Amino acid sequence: MSWNGTVRCGHCGQKGHNKTGCEELRKEWVRDPNGYYGKEWARILARKEAPKTCSYCDETGHTRSGCALVKKHKVTYARDLLLWRKAIEKYFIDIGYGPCALVKFKMEVPYIAKINGKAQWSYPDDQTYPGPPFGMVPASLDTVSFAVQDHLSVMLLPVRYSVRYPRMGSMELVPTDAQNRSVPMTLPLIPGLFPRIGVSVGGDEEDRVEAVTKPMINDPWEIVSRSPKKDVKPFGNSFTAKSKIKEKTKERFSRDEGRSPWEHKEFTPEHRNILQAYIDGFITISDMESVTTLGAFVDEATSA
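Given the sequence above, the corresponding structure tokens read:
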């Protein structure tokens, strides 16, 4: 396909068709079936006559573009993603997270600090450890981190990886004697959105706090000075835009991603209602404390 969207044949060079519909290539096959171009046309015919197999559901008779199951999954994924993004956006607005917000780590973490005039790694066990670092959320939020892009990747993240992930960006250390180094920030546990009761690698329920050996996941940081930029949302003003939801949905279900139906999960109707009630202000974040990861999704055995 050319730059202006017009199909151009790779055999004859004419516009309006490709090799699979090229009359000149078909004539070459009629003229000499055993010739180079004749064999090429024969391969095209063989592909056309072969049974179609869907690259998503593996059923025959249709392709991915005509798969009813993938279309259904796209609709439910996009609906749940938008709902989850609106809810997590509200949570971070409520706590004051955004450009130039001042953040303090609750836990002692290693970072590069300026000690005795020299920039070096400082660890909590060191006698010279300055204490938990302060930092500032970057002024520009042009890109959305992996941690808040997709509800399935976050909520279904196996507990064993919760010590270091999901990463939601970084903060620039202050004051300046920290050499303007940044410290990574992990997504905190958020009721209903990143529940404490998660899933193990084997798919069973597991407590994210009790399972980890390093205290990096249980409320690792707090906002000590709210973002002064009231006109900028925590993850950019297009975070919940329909175009971004459509873009993310297309990305997740693209052939390159290699997703299959068994990887698809969707929220229960009850959890959708809970998230909508939170977004509308009828309940608070603490009202979702009892929500578990597995409880938020439809059981495969009972799903249609």
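The mean pLDDT is 83. Try to locate this feature in the token string yourself.
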